[in-house]
Amino acid sequence: MVQVPNYNEEVIYLTGRVATVNQPTQLLLEVRFSKGAQSVKAFARSERPDVGQLLFDVLPSLLSA
């Protein structure tokens, strides 16, 4: 976890490959936690927009595990 200077936030960066029909796709996820907040900010980057949307669909279950 990384502390963001001048902000009351900590950040986790996750990267990985997602197996798709055509070829593996690289994925980058940034999750920001603000101290005292009841939510997180999440940003996804991928070569394929549909993979990013898939990640946001499963993100709540990943964070609650």
Account of the 3D structure:
It is a single chain. By secondary structure, this protein is α+β, with helices and mostly antiparallel strands. It has one domain. Helices cover 25% and strands 45% of the residues. A four-stranded antiparallel β-sheet has the order 1-2-3-4, covered by helices on one side. A hairpin with a 5-residue loop joins strand 1 and strand 2 (9-18). It starts with a strand and ends with a helix. 0% of the residues are buried.
What attributes characterize this protein structure?
single chain, 65 residues, alpha+beta, 45% strand
Task: Summarize this structure briefly.
This protein has 65 residues and is of the alpha+beta class. The protein has one helix and four strands, in the order ββββα. It has one domain.
Strand count, sense and closure of the main sheet? 4 strands, antiparallel
Proportion of residues in β-strands: 35-45%
Radius of gyration: 13 Å
Order of helices and strands: EEEEH
Can you list the strand order of the major beta sheet? 1-2-3-4
The end-to-end distance, rounded to whole angstroms, is 18 Å
Total number of β-strand segments?
A: 4
